[in-house]
Design a protein that fits this description.
The protein has five helices and 14 strands. It is an alpha/beta fold. The protein has a six-stranded mixed sheet with strand order 4-3-2-1-13-14, with no helix packed on it. Strands 6-7-9-10-12-11 form a six-stranded mixed sheet. It has a two-stranded antiparallel ribbon with strand order 5-8. Strand 9, helix 5 and strand 10 form a beta-alpha-beta unit. Helix 1 packs parallel to helix 2. The longest helix is centred in the N-terminal third of the chain and has 15 residues. It is globular. The mean pLDDT is about 90.
């Protein structure tokens, strides 16, 4: 699993991230025992001049730079973060329709007629014979809805507990792609919502119900060299790759005789990766 989060349209070095995705896919394309998935844990926009290309209303929309680059780089899936909703659902809908060539998730976002059919609660990938289920969750914290918006964001804990029994039988591996933040106990730029973050979410789940939480929102750089015991909660590893594209996270999950384990997790500074010249 390759993961990024909270790029906030800081895309100047994105060719390095694209190059790492391409490098691993090329390396393992003929290996029947290794599959690669690349994902974003949300807040892909708001925070750089690239935001201007989104426009201030649907008529001034030009393109969604992050989704267009993610599509070209081979990102497989993303989840909606709070800032992805800042410009309203009409602009977001145009961005998904025009530029996202991957599923966009949020299981707990409700009452969004402009986005109907454009986002999903979960996705199931079958890659190299492995069935990987991914469930997306969005934070309620710091959602700056435009006026007259009727967005509703439901309790992620109850939503996840409801969806898991439906999807678990069809998956070898289940990942929660979360933009809830790390924990309500942390003090960071972004705060988890009243229901807590990934730590509190993991504490509510039966052991073995999910295999990994790929997180975002609180800009934590977790497990920089290896999986920290502090980031394994109720048997569930939690990973997060900082912010602004400073790191690319990599998680190795092993499946042996129906036993699933996270073998390793690490962060690679993006500046240490080679520039993918053809992606420029």
């Amino acid at each position: 699993i390759l993961h990024i989060n909270d790029l906030h349209h800081h895309l100047a070095d994105f060719s390095r991230i694209a190059g790492r995705i391409r490098e691993l896919r090329t390396q393992h394309q003929d290996d029947p025992n290794t599959a690669i998935l690349a994902m974003s844990a949300g807040d892909d926009i708001i925070g750089s001049p690239f935001d201007e290309l989104l426009g201030s209303d649907p008529d001034s929309f030009s393109l969604h730079p992050a989704y267009r680059l993610y599509s070209a780089a081979g990102i497989d899936i993303s989840v909606l973060g709070n800032h992805d909703l800042d410009l309203g659902t009409e602009i977001l809908a145009k961005g998904i329709q025009q530029d996202a060539r991957f599923p966009v998730l949020s299981a707990n976002l409700k009452n969004t007629p402009e986005l109907e059919g454009l986002y999903y609660p979960a996705a199931l990938f079958i890659t190299k014979g492995i069935r990987v289920g991914v469930i997306g969750l969005t934070t309620f914290a710091q959602v700056r809805q435009p006026l007259n918006s009727n967005l509703e964001i439901a309790n992620p804990v109850s939503v996840l507990q409801n969806i898991l029994p439906a999807i678990r039988p069809f998956c070898d591996v289940i990942i929660v792609l979360s933009h809830l933040g790390y924990s309500r106990k942390t003090r960071t730029v972004s705060a988890p919502n009243e229901w807590g973050g990934d730590v509190e979410l993991a504490q509510t789940l039966p052991k073995g119900s999910i295999d990994l939480i790929v997180g975002g929102h609180t800009h934590h750089a977790l497990n920089q060299d290896s999986v920290s015991a502090n980031n394994i909660v109720n048997g569930i590893p939690i990973v997060q790759a900082g912010s602004f594209g400073d790191f690319v996270g990599e998680v190795h999950i092993s499946l042996k005789k129906n036993l699933i384990s996270v073998e390793s997790a690490s962060l690679t500074p993006t500046g240490n990766l080679a520039i993918y010249e053809k992606f420029q």
